[in-house]
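Below is a filled-in request sheet from our internal design queue. Each sheet records the structural input a requester submitted and the sequence that came back. We keep these sheets so that new team members can see what a complete request looks like end to end.

REQUESTER: design group, bay 2
PRIORITY: normal
MODE: inverse folding
CHAIN LENGTH: 146
BACKBONE (tokenized):
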């Protein structure tokens, strides 16, 4: 409501406050929103570290769009150290959720074959960990094969 000004005056700071309250309840979509706000400095000071942290919280609950965003930030070094291996991991996890991700191909082109192999190995391990966490929770997670 506050983010878009629907039936209330648009107020990004108020939107950020409510997004964060919802995110603290553990909902992946709600966790994505503060990441977006921190990444862009909407209603809060711009803070890439906070953005990545919130995106990763949502990403670990199988939100494919949230999995793509830390990949972009890591691939470009936008506010965080550039890391193609970890960017590739997040892009791969997003692809596994059905999110189109040409960024993975762009990052792959900048990596050595050993780095790509390591990223794939780590993505598989990370995917298993996420799946185990989801089975233990009530949210559920659809994991698609590569």
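RETURNED SEQUENCE:
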């Amino acid at each position: 409501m506050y983010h878009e000004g629907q039936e209330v005056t648009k107020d990004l700071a108020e939107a950020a406050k409510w997004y964060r309250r919802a995110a603290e309840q553990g909902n992946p979509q709600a966790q994505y929103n503060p990441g977006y706000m921190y990444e862009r400095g909407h209603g809060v000071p711009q803070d890439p570290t906070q953005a990545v942290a919130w995106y990763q919280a949502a990403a670990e609950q199988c939100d494919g769009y949230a999995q793509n965003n830390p990949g972009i930030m890591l691939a470009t070094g936008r506010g965080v150290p550039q890391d193609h291996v970890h960017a590739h991991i997040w892009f791969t996890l997003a692809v596994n959720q059905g999110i189109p991700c040409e960024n993975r191909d762009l990052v792959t082109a900048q990596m050595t074959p050993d780095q790509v192999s390591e990223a794939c190995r780590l993505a598989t391990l990370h995917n298993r960990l996420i799946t185990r966490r989801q089975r233990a929770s009530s949210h559920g997670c659809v994991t698609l094969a590569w």
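SHEET NOTES:
- Residues 1-59 form a domain with the Serine Threonine Protein Phosphatase 5, Tetratricopeptide repeat fold (CATH 1.25.40.10).
- The CA atoms of residues 28 and 61 lie 6 Å apart.
FILED BY: M.R.
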